[in-house]
């Protein structure tokens, strides 16, 4: 049930009738016609921009269109008022029983209330985290992991068939550095002094890897040259790091459907096949790039390279895929990896990247556009940095990691649910401050507490009702006389519930899970406000002497609980039933 979509359909029907009657010309595009909550609730329940967006193509004054549309809409018994405002906005008011019907729908549909068919079963691949397998995950990965996982949940709720994927960056020089670092810990396990020289990974997390290498290989590697042990140690250490990463993700409540390896692209012909596909499209050529912006001519060495004509698909400049020495650039395996995803038949691709990958966005979109023939859209979300604070100061780095705060540090201090919710309280492309003191305090300023407290209040009301002999099963509450909910404060909460299905669609269309966190805070605020008004107005209290009235009021509260639990489920947060 999406009440806003239903009223929009009514608006479109009225506009079509106006065309048939000659009030509007034919051939108009109604795609931009919207029905949404008004900016000021005092203006009405819903507003439509129909007259404003159709005035120019129709060649008519917007107010004339709005007046004619208002007359049409007033014939609908759900609409009690249609007022033209300003240059031609149309504000609508709906009958109280429409809002009361939203409560019944939430109770009847339960966890399916707000669920959308936006995806229509189409497939979407959400690739996120994809950290180098060189150590434990750090706080930057936390945010990317939460954003990616919550987005996957959101898209599934909106009707998409979702695959969560982790791309293991195990094909570059960093895994050789990992192997050399692990080898020093292997030497340490044999009682030798490790040489953690500059450029190696210093964290203590590699100590157990060194011990495991000793258990597996004994002392057989100690006196052998690097070329003899590097490949074996690299594979061993990478597997151990991926096991650690999987455990880190599990502590955050994240599990992947698929792990793909960059290394598996080399020596298999997959990179060559992807580049050949682009070459067959006349998108690969030999050329010399212009100097990068900011480079002086003497700092630039022009050289012929194999280039991808990415400017043909929206990029600013063409991009090298093969160096003059014949080796692949970092971009080449990424092209092959995304070509593999295209070939797997996904209808949409989404990548969650760190903020430092901003320069990759246009080139990667260009590659997917070319390789899919424009069929598969790629959306890339950049996740900005997280700044950690504790006791009013920046939170110190982890000794175990050596150079950064780990995911485990954050989860152990704040908890999984708090961590996940707070990571979604800002849009992904905005920097986020994570203050351990504030995220754990019990106040309105702490959004996760405020939302969880609302859910706890819902359950408290239900428990008290049961203690008083009131039947609060969903079936009974859905059948209650909801016409008893006629106070403006109660209707306001019902109106907020009606926004949930619309919010799900908007958030899913924009791949923006943070919108769910924002909405839940607003819904919780409305419930707390209604609770507080009951302190002064006895008629607004949820438990009344009359059972029928109590059940109507509790139906509203229970509907709020249904939506909060659904929203928290999308965020990957466990609802609490009681605050301690």
TrEMBL record:
A motif ('HIGH' region) lies at residues 131-141. Residues 5-94 form the Arginyl tRNA synthetase N-terminal domain. Keywords: Aminoacyl-tRNA synthetase, ATP-binding, Cytoplasm, Ligase, Nucleotide-binding, Protein biosynthesis. Its EC number is 6.1.1.19. It comes from the Bacteria. The keyword Isomerase does not apply. It is an enzyme of class 6 (ligase). Residues 451-579 form the DALR anticodon binding domain. Gene3D superfamilies: Arginyl tRNA synthetase N-terminal domain, HUPs, Isoleucyl-tRNA Synthetase, Domain 1. It holds the Pfam family DALR_1. It is found in: Cytoplasm. GO terms for molecular function: arginine-tRNA ligase activity. SUPFAM superfamilies: Anticodon-binding domain of a subclass of class I aminoacyl-tRNA synthetases, Arginyl-tRNA synthetase (ArgRS), N-terminal 'additional' domain, Nucleotidylyl transferase. It catalyses: tRNA(Arg) + L-arginine + ATP = L-arginyl-tRNA(Arg) + AMP + diphosphate. Monomer. Belongs to the class-I aminoacyl-tRNA synthetase family. This is Arginine--tRNA ligase. The lineage of its organism: Bacteria, Pseudomonadati, Pseudomonadota, Alphaproteobacteria, Rhodobacterales.
